[in-house]
Specification:
heterodimer, A: Rossmann fold, Rossmann fold, 2 domains, five-stranded mixed sheet, 14 strands, B: seven-stranded mixed sheet
C-alpha cells in the first residue's frame, strides 16, 4: 500500500454508505489478493457509472481495473477465461438489466463448467439493480429470479452496508460464479457501521434484522429497509428476516421464524410471478404448514416493466405504505 | 342434508319479541313419519353469530340424525331445548336475533347483559361482519388446530379477534394463558365433538336411565383395572332401546334352513359384468332379497306387523336392509320392493347402503318397513339369531356363503359335491305365526334360490 491510496481510503472503521462499502470490499480484496481484478464498462478512468471503482486505476493500474467494450457477453466470457486460468475477476454490469447480453456466458458456461468438466469458475458479476429513480424499463429491473433457475450460480443481495462489504468479499473468495445484486436505491441512502479490514459474511446465511413474535417479513435488498421502517412505524411484534443470499437459500432461518410467528409476508421489488416470493411461499406451505396461522402473502411489483413516468413507477414499485398495509392486513387475519 | 328439514326450519315464525327481528328455530317436519326429535348437540351457544342455513344443532329422530339449519343470519339469542330433550315437531328450539349485526360485541363481553339495541338495523342476509368481511369464526388455521389438539382446547370457546372473528394463534395462546385449558368450564358444554368433553352431571331430560357420566364405582374400577369411558352415541342408544324393546315385546323363535347357492352363483357370474357396466354391483344379498320378496307374496303372514291384538297384513313389501355403519347399524327401507327386478333390487340396495354410509338418509328412508333382511355374513359367521325389527314379525339373516361337501342327487344316485352353501336364519314372532309358517316360508325362499334361472 502506498501513501497516496491510503489517503483515498475511507475511514478505517465506522459508518459508511452501502456504495462505499462495496468499494471498500473490492479494494480490500484487490490489495490482499493480486489475482483479483475488475472489468466493466467505464469503470477505469471514469470510475464507474456509480463511482464504485473511483480511484482504482490510480491505485491498481488499468490492467487490474479494465475498461471493457460495451459487450456484456465479452466481459463475462473474458472473466470466465481468466477465472479458469487462475484469476479472480469481478465484472461490473453497468446496469443489471444489461446482463441479458451476457446471459449465455453466465448461465450456460460459467454455471455449468463445474458440472461438465469439474472446472471452478470463481467470478463475481456485480449487478446494480432496482428502480425508484425514473430510470425506465432498461435501467430499473430486479433480475434475480432469472439466475435462481440456473443451477451452478450463487446469488446474493445485501441490504446493509456491512453486508454489502462482507458478502462481496465472500463472493470474491467463493469458487463458484456469484451474482452480486446491489440495489441502486441503497447506494447512498443506506449507511451503517462497517468493520474495517477483512470482513466476511457467509454466503447462504440469513440474518434476523428485527425480532418479533406475530409476523415474519422475509425480504432482501431494498425491501429489508422498507420492512424495518414499516415495523418501526407500526410498532408491532414483527420479525424481519433479511435473506442476504437467495441461492443457496437459508431455508432453516426462514422456517424457524415462520414456525415462531405463524404468519409470513415475502417482500421484494422484483416482479411477482415465479419469483423469490413464490419459491418461499411454496417452501413455507410445504414444510411449515402446520405452523401457519394465515396464508403466505407476497408484496412485490406487479408483472409489468418498470415505467419511466415517476407517478407510474411509484405505483408499480412497493412503497412503505404498501408494506404497512400488507403487514396490517396479515396481522389482523 | 335433505331439503325437507331446511324448508321446515325456514318456516320459522317471528317470536313473541318479534319487533326486534327475532326468529325461532323450530323442530322441523322431517318427513311424514316423524312426529318428534331429540336434540343431540348444539353447535352454537347463545351469543354466537350464525349464518343463514348454517347448522345450529343436531337432532336425532331415533333412526337418523339431521342438522337443523338457521332460518336466517343473526345472533343466537337463547337456546330453549337442551341436549337430550325430545320435543314434538314444530316446537321452538332456539331464538335467533336476525336484527343483530355482525361484529357486535359478544354478549359475554357485557357480563351477561343483552347486546345494546341497534335500532332496527336491517337483517343481514350474508354471513358477513361489520367490516364487510365474511364471517370466518368457524375457520381454524393449521397452527390453531395444532395448538388446540395439543392442549385439548375446545376452539368454539375461544374468542376470535381476527378478520371476520377468526380465532388467531394469539387468541388461542391467550386463551391458554388465561388457564383456558381443557376442563375448567363452569357452564355446561354444548359441543360434544371434543373427546375431552366433561361429562354432564345430570341425566338428559326425558331419560329415566342414569346419564352416561354417572361416576364409576371405585370398587368396580379397582377390580376391572383401567377403563376408558365414552358416552353412547345417540344411534347406539336408539339401537339399545329398540333391541331391548323388541326382545320384551315379541316371542322370538329362530328357524334355519340350509340353501345351495350353486345356481345363484352361476347366475351372478353371468350377470355381474353386464350390470357392473351399468354401475350396479350385483351381490348375493340382491338374490336373497328378490327371493324373499317373491316368497312373501305367497306367505302374507310374514309380511305383517302386530298392533296390539291385531295383525296387520301389508299389501306392499317394504323391505328393510340392515346396513352396518362404523358405530352402529341402520335399516333403510326399499319401498314396494315387489316391483323391482334383480337388477333394480341390486341398484336399490347399493344406493341405500351408500347413502346410509354417507349419513345422507332421510327420516322417511328408515320408516315403514314390513320385513327386514340383515347380512353380516362378510365376516365369516355362519349362523345367527337376529332380533326382530318392531313392529315387523320376522327378520331374515343371511350369513356367509361357504363351500361345503354336499350330498347331491343325480341320475346315478347320490354323490358328494362341493357346493356354495349358506344357512338362512330367520327370527320370527310366535305371537303372529307358528313354526310351520316360518318353515314353509323359508322353504319357499330356499326353493327360489336353489332353482334360480337367469330371467333378466
Amino acid at each position: 500500500m502506498n501513501a497516496i491510496t491510503a489517503t483515498r481510503t475511507p475511514a478505517q472503521a465506522g459508518e459508511m454508505t452501502y456504495l462505499a462499502a462495496i468499494s471498500d470490499a473490492l479494494r480490500e480484496e484487490m490489495r490482499r489478493d493480486p489475482t483479483v481484478f475488475c472489468l466493466g464498462e467505464d469503470i477505469g478512468a471514469f470510475g464507474g457509472a456509480f463511482k464504485v471503482t473511483d480511484g482504482f486505476v490510480q491505485e491498481f493500474g488499468a490492467e487490474r481495473c479494465i475498461d471493457a467494450p460495451l459487450a456484456e457477453g465479452a466481459i463475462i466470457g473474458t472473466a470466465i477465461g481468466a477465472a479458469v486460468a487462475g484469476l479472480k475477476p469481478v465484472c461490473e454490469m453497468q446496469f443489471a438489466d444489461f446482463i441479458s447480453c451476457g446471459f449465455d456466458q453466465l448461465v450456460n458456461v460459467a454455471a455449468k463448467l463445474h458440472y461438465r468438466q469439474g472446472i471452478a469458475v470463481p467470478i463475481v458479476v456485480r449487478l446494480p439493480s432496482g428502480g425508484g429513480f425514473s430510470g425506465g424499463p432498461f435501467h430499473s429491473q430486479n433480475p434475480e429470479a432469472w439466475f435462481l433457475q440456473a443451477p451452478g450460480l450463487k446469488v446474493v443481495a445485501p441490504a446493509t452496508a456491512s453486508d454489502a462489504k462482507g458478502l462481496l468479499i465472500s463472493a470474491i473468495r467463493d469458487p463458484n460464479p456469484v451474482c452480486y445484486l446491489e440495489h441502486k436505491g441503497l447506494y447512498r441512502h443506506v449507511k451503517g457501521d462497517v468493520p474495517s479490514g477483512e470482513h466476511l459474511v457467509p454466503i447462504g446465511e440469513a440474518r434476523i434484522a428485527r425480532e418479533g413474535e406475530e409476523l415474519t417479513v422475509i425480504a432482501y435488498g431494498s425491501s429489508v429497509r422498507l420492512a424495518l421502517l414499516a415495523a418501526e412505524e407500526l410498532d408491532e411484534q414483527i420479525e424481519v428476516v433479511d435473506l442476504r443470499t437467495l441461492c443457496p437459500l437459508d431455508r432453516e432461518a426462514v422456517l424457524a421464524s415462520v414456525r415462531k410467528t405463524g404468519k409470513a409476508l415475502v417482500a421484494h421489488e422484483a416482479t411477482r410471478s415465479c419469483g423469490v416470493g413464490a419459491e418461499l411461499a411454496a417452501l413455507i406451505a410445504d414444510e411449515a404448514f402446520e405452523d401457519l396461522d394465515a396464508p403466505v402473502r407476497r408484496l412485490t411489483a406487479p408483472d409489468v416493466p418498470i415505467p419511466f413516468s415517476p407517478p407510474l413507477e411509484h405505483a408499480v414499485l412497493p412503497q412503505l405504505e404498501d408494506m404497512k398495509e400488507a403487514i396490517r392486513e396479515l396481522l389482523a387475519y | 342434508m335433505s331439503s325437507s328439514p331446511t324448508e321446515g326450519a325456514a318456516a320459522s315464525s317471528p317470536a313473541a319479541s318479534g319487533a326486534t327481528g327475532s326468529l325461532e328455530v323450530v323442530m322441523p317436519q322431517m318427513g311424514v313419519s316423524v312426529a318428534e326429535g331429540t336434540i343431540v348437540e348444539w353447535r352454537k351457544r347463545p351469543g354466537d353469530w350464525v349464518a343463514a342455513d348454517e347448522p345450529v344443532c343436531d337432532v336425532t329422530t331415533d333412526k337418523v340424525d339431521v342438522e337443523i339449519p338457521a332460518p336466517a343470519s343473526g345472533r343466537l339469542e337463547r337456546i330453549l331445548v337442551e341436549p337430550g330433550a325430545t320435543v314434538a315437531v314444530g316446537t321452538a328450539l332456539a331464538v335467533i336475533d336476525a336484527g343483530a349485526r355482525p361484529g357486535e360485541a359478544h354478549p359475554d363481553e357485557h357480563n351477561g347483559q343483552p347486546a345494546p339495541d341497534q335500532g332496527g338495523g336491517s337483517p343481514a342476509t350474508e354471513p358477513s361482519t361489520a367490516d364487510g368481511r365474511t364471517d370466518r369464526s368457524g375457520f381454524y388455521s393449521p397452527v390453531v388446530r395444532r395448538i388446540a389438539a395439543k392442549h385439548g382446547i375446545n376452539l368454539a370457546r375461544v374468542k376470535g379477534t381476527g378478520i371476520g372473528g377468526r380465532v388467531r394463534k394469539k387468541d388461542v395462546l391467550a386463551h391458554l394463558a388465561q388457564g383456558g385449558g381443557p376442563a375448567v368450564s363452569q357452564e355446561p358444554m354444548l359441543h360434544i365433538e371434543s373427546p375431552y368433553r366433561p361429562e354432564h352431571a345430570t341425566a338428559p331430560a326425558g331419560s329415566g336411565s342414569p346419564g352416561p357420566g354417572a361416576p364409576p364405582s371405585e370398587t368396580a374400577t379397582g377390580l376391572a383395572g383401567a377403563v376408558r369411558r365414552e358416552p353412547m352415541s345417540s344411534m347406539r342408544q336408539a339401537i339399545a332401546r329398540h333391541m331391548v324393546e323388541s326382545r320384551r315385546t315379541a316371542a322370538h323363535c329362530t328357524t334355519i334352513v340350509e340353501a345351495d347357492f350353486s345356481r345363484v352363483a352361476a347366475a351372478r357370474g353371468e350377470l355381474r359384468k353386464p350390470m357392473a357396466r351399468r354401475g350396479v354391483n350385483l351381490t348375493y344379498l340382491a338374490f336373497v332379497a328378490c327371493a324373499t320378496v317373491e316368497a312373501l307374496s305367497g306367505h302374507p303372514r310374514l309380511n305383517a306387523s302386530v298392533e296390539g291384538d291385531e295383525l296387520v297384513y301389508h299389501e306392499e313389501v317394504n323391505l328393510g336392509i340392515a346396513v352396518a355403519l362404523e358405530d352402529g347399524l341402520i335399516v333403510p327401507v326399499i319401498r314396494r320392493a315387489q316391483r323391482l327386478s334383480l337388477e333394480g333390487m341390486a341398484a336399490a340396495i347399493g344406493e341405500l347402503a351408500r347413502r346410509a354410509r354417507e349419513r345422507r338418509l332421510e327420516p322417511d328412508d328408515v320408516h315403514g318397513g314390513t320385513f327386514t333382511i340383515t347380512n353380516p355374513g362378510q365376516f365369516g359367521a355362519v349362523l345367527a339369531t337376529p332380533i326382530i325389527n318392531q313392529p315387523q314379525v320376522a327378520i331374515l339373516d343371511l350369513e356367509a356363503i361357504v363351500k361345503r361337501p354336499a350330498v347331491v342327487e343325480g341320475p346315478a344316485g347320490d354323490a358328494i359335491a362341493i357346493r356354495p352353501m349358506t344357512y338362512l336364519c330367520m327370527s320370527w314372532d310366535h305371537r303372529a305365526l307358528d313354526g310351520a309358517d316360518a318353515a314353509r316360508f323359508l322353504g319357499a325362499v330356499k326353493d327360489r334360490l336353489e332353482r334360480w334361472e337367469v330371467r333378466q
